Target: Phosphoenolpyruvate carboxykinase [GTP]
Amino acid sequence: MSVDTTQAPTTHKALLEWVSEIAALTEPDSIYWCDGSQEEYDRLGAELVAAGTAFKLDDSKKKNSYYFASDPDDVARVEDRTYICSTEEIDAGPTNNWRDPAEMKAVMTELYRGSMHGRTMYVIPFCMGPIDAEDPKFGVEISDSAYVAMSMRIMTRMGEGPLKAMTTGGDRAFVPCLHSVGFPLEEGQADVPWPCNEEKYIVHFPEDRAIWSYGSGYGGNALLGKKCYSLRIASVMARDEGWLAEHMLILKLTSPAGKAYHIAGAFPSACGKTNLAMIDPTLDGWTAETLGDDINWMRFDKEGYLRGVNPENGFFGVAPGTGWSTNPNAMRTIDGGNSIFTNVARTLDGDVWWEGMTDENPAELIDWKGEPWTLESGVKAAHPNSRFTTPMDQCPILSDEWDDPKGVRIDAILFGGRRATTIPLVLETSSWSHGVFVGATCSSETTAAAKGKVGVVRRDPMAMLPFIGYNAGDYIQHWLDMETLHETPHLPKVFYVNWFRKSDDGKFLWPGFGENSRVLAWIVGRLDGTADAVQTPVGFVPTLDAIDRTGIEDEVDDETLAAVLKVDVDEWKQEIPLIEEWFTKLGERFPKQLWKDLEDLKTALDNA
Ligand code: GTP
Ligand code: SPV
Ligand code: MN
Model:
């Protein structure tokens, strides 16, 4: 179709050309430019309800909120269909799928040809991070999914504002993000509730700074401002521009003495970022404020401190396990309404439910597959990777600084993961480079956030394995280089945490959630030099007395605490060959220094 550019709400030349080009290729019925207004959101929601794609929740339960159930095969990120298409294969590195960019473009161009037949093409302008940032990171997603358009309004700064800013002081650069569900409707063909295609491609062209996604409507595959832009493409920008784009939460913690600390935490998908970001501390006198739950862009300030900014505007949180006893602040955020729920269960009175939301399960539900569900059904009512999409500004403990383009100085970085054994509740590294070593060796059991087997231990450096947009060896080197990229670097202290250690009978040893404030208190005690630790071959761990157990002495007795803090030399010795195998896989660009650190660790374990 031909595009009437005089009707388009922008004069941005490159954008208009790209929109015309994509319209000519994908042949939608119409083109719609999103303005990001409430009226638009309501209209799209009403259209989706009328089409049978969405349910509107009862306004008295959750106002202005919608329920979606995806195709049962389109419920998570598809890592084996995710590609980094750099010109040279070595630049994608040993951990990413790679195809020659020209070849990939040829294949995908044929998939996109006519792929929007019978559909509206939404043009979705957005900005990752505050629009008034020094160097705002713009993007435009073209998508044939109204679910994507609605979700992008929650997850990003979307619509008229960013579009206008994109032409302020001349046409500004933007990342073109092309998305099609790959389900064209031919004349007379009826739509399905969740259109998608068996063949999926989530493709990044790091040198062009472009994203092409095909075949999936699910979160990380389709909301292209999130993982695709803010991690895979942004990590490449960050490498080139001397900063870090990371899969991290950002939390502000204030001690009883009134001192504030900013903590960033990198845990793999479905390993506790949202929960820690919204923590309700059980330790008396401590308060927490949320800055971000998934992504952290860290840049040096003039003085050499790393300042973190959350580029997102909403939370795309794991629903199961989110409840009043575990994450009350998330519950309050979604109770504000204006939210989208995907693949959770529905109650008979127009609300949503998932495992872990309430202490008692409702007697009857409609499960995520649309089937009637009772306590006897014997299946989970919500998909394990079901999600809520909800605006940040509804979070009752949101920090005032969340929208500050300068970000916040990060005092500590936590790496973490889900490990039933070996990794203690918390350990402190001895230097930045030791922190990078530990980050590079991090491992975690796989979760339902990505398609594939759940519960398999894999290495996940800095919780970024699926999100590094370039060679992972170069990425680790870039982390080491942070020490030399500023004349006077004041880098955060690095810790490693594990909330998920289990006893021999398979129970979590540590109560987690709000009780993690006890670990945070120890961490800031280490920053201030007031908390005790013992040195072990793998780092400093708290003495038994250094973790405040006031009120949980019975649940976490000395024996349990010792078990959760234990650095077991034999367990660690079993870890060494796995790390060796991993470092070997990372190949020729992996920093030699870390091989030496590994030798030192082996020696320390042998001498322990
Ligand atoms: P993504 O959005 O996929 O990046 O996940 P996330 O890292 O934000 O994980 P989230 O906070 O949503 O937690 C994932 C799951 O882990 C949920 O089911 C939580 O209930 C559970 N979880 C989070 N924190 C803890 C904890 O401290 N202890 C235990 N046992 N479970 C936790
Ligand atoms: C994750 O998997 O880490 C998520 C959800 O935060 S997604 O947006 O699908 O990547
Ligand atoms: Mn995530």
About this structure: The chain has 16 helices and 31 strands. The mean pLDDT is 97. Residues 247, 269, 294 surround manganese (II) ion (ligand 3) (CB under 6 Å). The radius of gyration is 24 Å.
